[in-house]
Amino acid sequence: MADKQLDVLVICGSLRKGSYNAALARSLPALAPSGMTLRAAPSFAGLAVYNYDEHQASGIPQVALAWADAIRAADGVIIVSPEYNWSIPGGLKNAIDWASRLKDQDQPFAGKPVALQSAATGLLGGSRMQYHLRQSLTSIDALMFPRPEVIVTFAAKKFDAATLELTDQPTRDMIKLQLAGFEKFARMVAAKG
Amino acid sequence: MPGKNLSVISICGSLRSGSYNGIVQRALPALAPEGLMVRPAPSFSQFPLYNADVQAASGFPAAVNVLADAIRAADGVIIVSPEYNFSIPGGLKNAIDWVSRLPNQPFAGRPIALQSASPGPLGGARVQYDLRRAMVFLDAFVLNKPEIFIGSCASKLDEKTGEIKDETTRNLIKQQLAAFATFIDRVAVKA
Fold first, then answer.
1. What are B109-124's pLDDT values in tens digits?
2. Which of B15, B52, B87 sits opposite A88 (nearest CB)?
3. Nearest to residue A82, comparing CAs of A130, A41, A37?
4. Does residue A10 contact residue A28 with C-beta atoms inside 8 Å?
5. Predicted ipTM?
6. pTM for this one?
7. Smallest Cβ distance to A50: which of B91, B97, B98?
């Protein structure tokens, strides 16, 4: 099959520069199958906290529109996020909340293949965040990739302390497996229009 | 039995002025038992999105400390929130994320009660269970029962007068607030 390149958007749930999850997101292009091109999503950093009144008065902010446009244009989305207080970071959830308010035909996540990854310094690797995200994205009709899951536990041992390069081989292998599976999943969805 | 005057604050997860959950929040003082004072918490509407780099460079925004101080000063916190996309509104979660980073984390050991209203049949149940999970990490004491899920809320809340029209809902809230006062007495750290 001479498929075209699969265009996959990567969203990072942390805004911190030294974030393990940002480092995980940066590791993906080198681990992706040759048919998959990864690009970083525009930042949601400047978004205001969602307020319906402001939405009515001023519309959806440019930052949210650009974020949603990038999602809509992609063949698939990978969300790489830390867990804050056993759940989704408020900033990431707020971006999803803004994007979910677009008109039905503009809903960026509807029918979109989505894969999840998380890294955390503890032994659960951000898994609680992932299950909440699965639940939330179900409400806006995203097509959630089941498994393999990428849950990077004890992150401080798996990234180089100085360069933040992902050095742990089993983790790299698991990511390769997930990305290869996600490519098949996204292509299957795309083929069915 | 609650033996002293308790002062609790209410946090609304919606910023919309006409919010159904705002209507419920504003109704609480009149439904509270004697000895339980309920007043609204300072707003989180202007919090920036959490970024550890911003925190490291500039410290905590003043509004974050104002909210955290109010939580610490309160005997308990009632969170009244809509459900956004089957979960916690990002703005509310972002407020929780900011205050969770403070030393002397304000939710630790704090009694919490949850309420939600929504036009759908579940009344926001999913936001409550996700909040419960986050509150476990924050070491808060969340009241178990009675739970308040105001389903089909458009028929129960009067948007014009701001009143809870539904007697069953008013009674349930009264029961929860009474149970919350007793709960606070039971779990409060003895000074």
1. 999 999 999 999 899 9
2. B87
3. A130
4. yes
5. 0.79
6. 0.88
7. B91
